[in-house]
Amino acid sequence: MSAASLPSLITPALLSTIRMQPHLPAHSWYFIAGVTLSILNRPDDIGTIFKHAIEAGPGPNDTQPSGEEQLLIARKMREALIKAAPIGGLPKAINALFSLKGVTPAALQDEPLGFSPSSRPVEVYDMPSSAILHRGQTFFDNVYGKVSKRVMGQMDRSGTEDLGITARLMYGYILSNTNVLTAAETSYVLLAGLIPQDVNPQLKGHLKGAVNNGATVDEVKAVREIIIRICEASGMITIGRGVTGGWGWRGGIANL
Question: How many Å apart are CA 104 and CA 247, to the nearest integer?
Answer without folding.
Answer: 32
